[in-house]
Amino acid sequence: MPFDPVTRPLTPHEARVLATLMEKARTVPDSYPMSLNGLVTGCNQKTSRDPVMQLSDAEAQEALDSLKLLTLAFESSGNRTTRWEHNFQRGVGVPEQSAVLLGLLMLRGPQTAGELRINAERWYRFADISSVEAFLDELQERSAEKGGPLVVQLPRAPGAREQRWAHLMCGPVDTTASQPATGSTTAAPSPALQARMDALEAEVAALRNTVQRLCAELGISPDFSPMSPPGQE
């Protein structure tokens, strides 16, 4: 019987270990199957992870043992050490495209269809956003006989153009948690937007330093007075 997250949801540690195996199988095949040490390093990456975790070897091994019982992971003998592989597609009963989307959602948290298409580039190249949405819809409408829905579309956040999707591999998701508290007027920027803002700030700082250096060579003083807001003088 296919994996049923309602009867036996994954723990956050199990989801991270499983998704990391799925990621590395596609992005660094030369290092796959994975040793426990390599797997822990992948699980604890600071980038492309939401939330960031700090799993110990013991916690990762415990998750692997549980995933093995669920037939979602298995051991493969290596020359010197035990190595691990995932069995996601067969264990859950989904095609490759659906497995890619679920793996990304487990690793990076809720995302829009557009974000999923971009983040999937190294895993699987979707033709367009419509194809991503088609597989998401299929996962959301999955029948009980196949194990039930595996994703859910979250309510649209204020000011957002697209709705985000979340996985259900760890059980039901509180869709109200993505909404701002009553009385809130602004929402925190997404990780992608924050990264762009940080990059722009760094670029502006570099340009400012360049202007200061050039002005010093020319013997003039740079004017860095702030600009007036639109509509004001």
From TrEMBL:
The keyword Lipid biosynthesis does not apply. SUPFAM superfamilies: Winged helix' DNA-binding domain. It comes from the Bacteria. It holds the Pfam family DUF480. Residues 190-217 form a coiled coil. Keywords: Coiled coil. The keyword Coiled coil applies. Belongs to the UPF0502 family. This is YceH family protein. It comes from Acidovorax benzenivorans.
